[in-house]
């Protein structure tokens, strides 16, 4: 069971740190500033590690300590899911609205482009339509729009807005000619946008954008604080479980009475092989079977235990590089 807690804890530590990176939008310096354990950087915490008697009383059984840590990590994981879901929904809705107000004239919202005076409003017979015209066809549009269908008001077109490829033109015609005008416009490779000027709807969209933006800012600070506190809690629990595993594995391997020393080693990559050789020479007498690689029977998705190396000493890796920056 300590093994499963160990695995789930590592997942939660990585999930919290990666979500911190997502929320802070991958600003590496900002993320590293917030990924602390007990207020210090991770390497400092590990090198000064002391068992937290208040959180995990050593008078309790190993099973009880494991249960305390298991409940703690489950709570953090559940809270993270709920908070991430709420914030992601808010962020997604805001991004959808922002996308509507950007991009091509063929698809983007026109609410922030047009004005009331661009339209014939509340007329029983006339309507103003908006047409997207490629820049290469401006001259043709000016020559032909009045004759695309019957009942187009002469000299009624105006260029309202341009993007990189196209222009948005207004044109006024009689309501009964709408379908014919649309059809002829399409034949000439002009796109008639479905748009009716409605001040209430347009104001509602703007207010929704403001509300979502304000809500996102309000949630941002408390969310980052929660992530910072709970990353620290999860990381500390993770290191305690590692310490617990060192103890349990040492007893299982070498028996009682307890007689072992835990060490932290941080070699350079180029010295890894040499260090392994030195450690092997020092401790090979403890376990003659360690020369072979032991295939583990446990096959848990996401973990390639069959590749795990087995040494005559108890060995666990602590990876402090928790982030995959895009």
TrEMBL record:
Signal sequence extent: none
InterPro entries, per the entry: ATPase_V1-cplx_csu, Vac_ATP_synth_c_sf
Similarity-based family: Belongs to the V-ATPase C subunit family.
A GO cellular component annotation in the UniProt record: vacuolar proton-transporting V-type ATPase, V1 domain
Assembly: V-ATPase is a heteromultimeric enzyme made up of two complexes: the ATP-hydrolytic V1 complex and the proton translocation V0 complex. The V1 complex consists of three catalytic AB heterodimers that form a heterohexamer, three peripheral stalks each consisting of EG heterodimers, one central rotor including subunits D and F, and the regulatory subunits C and H. The proton translocation complex V0 consists of the proton transport subunit a, a ring of proteolipid subunits c9c'', rotary subunit d, subunits e and f, and two accessory subunits.
Superkingdom of the organism of origin: Eukaryota
PANTHER family xref list: V-TYPE PROTON ATPASE SUBUNIT C (PTHR10137), V-TYPE PROTON ATPASE SUBUNIT C 1 (PTHR10137:SF5)
Gene3D superfamilies assigned to the protein according to its UniProt record, in alphabetical order: 3.30.70.100, subunit c (vma5p) of the yeast v-atpase, domain 2, Vacuolar atp synthase subunit c, domain 1
Function: Subunit of the V1 complex of vacuolar(H+)-ATPase (V-ATPase), a multisubunit enzyme composed of a peripheral complex (V1) that hydrolyzes ATP and a membrane integral complex (V0) that translocates protons. V-ATPase is responsible for acidifying and maintaining the pH of intracellular compartments and in some cell types, is targeted to the plasma membrane, where it is responsible for acidifying the extracellular environment. Subunit C is necessary for the assembly of the catalytic sector of the enzyme and is likely to have a specific function in its catalytic activity.
Keywords for the protein's UniProt record, in alphabetical order: Acetylation, Hydrogen ion transport, Ion transport, Transport
This protein's name: V-type proton ATPase subunit C
GO molecular function terms listed in the Swiss-Prot or TrEMBL record: proton-transporting ATPase activity, rotational mechanism
